[in-house]
């Protein structure tokens, strides 16, 4: 499997992990776009949001609860944060393993560029 996020999940590539359980891993983005930029990744390889199915419903809900936990643990829950999923090339997806960007620590513009 050549997927870089599968390699991070399997610890074949090092990353700065902030949270892990049986379903997900969360780690700092290598090229942060905000003071806090964490990626939350399911351990199951799902290439894009479009490949999410009925059987993943609990997993997706779990990911949002993990995001809330990370926000509270690190302490950016008070000021707020943004969650982004880029789906396919035109939206900016470059790694084809589903991931949730969690961005915090600065004022965010809208709409995104
Ligand atoms: P995408 O553009 O697919 O939505 O987001 C991919 C993200 O993965 C980018 O923000 C990029 O900086 C990050 N990334 C790419 N390769 C690595 C890596 O090897 N380690 C970590 N921690 N982040 C990575
Ligand atoms: Zn993968």
Automatic annotation (TrEMBL):
Q: Which PROSITE patterns match?
A: HIT_1, HIT_2
Q: Could you name the active-site residues? A: 99
SUPFAM superfamilies (UniProt xref): HIT-like
| Pfam families found in the cross-reference section | HIT
Q: Tell me where in this chain the HIT domain is found.
A: 4-113
Recorded superkingdom: Bacteria
Q: List the molecular function annotations (GO) for this entry.
A: catalytic activity
Q: Which CDD domains match?
A: PKCI_related
Q: Motif span (Histidine triad motif)?
A: 97-101
Q: Which InterPro entries match?
A: Histidine_triad_CS, Histidine_triad_HIT, HIT-like, HIT-like_sf
Protein name as catalogued: Histidine triad (HIT) protein
């Amino acid at each position: 499997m050549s997927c870089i996020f599968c390699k991070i999940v399997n610890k074949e590539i090092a990353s700065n992990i902030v949270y892990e359980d049986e379903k997900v891993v969360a780690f700092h983005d290598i090229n942060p776009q905000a003071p806090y930029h964490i990626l939350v990744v399911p351990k199951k390889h799902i290439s894009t949001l479009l490949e999410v199915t009925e059987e993943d419903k609990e997993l997706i809900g779990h990911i949002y609860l993990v995001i809330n936990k990370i926000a509270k643990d690190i302490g950016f829950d008070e000021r707020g944060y943004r969650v982004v999923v880029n789906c396919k090339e035109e939206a900016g997806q470059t790694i084809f393993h589903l991931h949730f960007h969690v961005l915090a620590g600065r004022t965010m513009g809208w709409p995104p560029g």
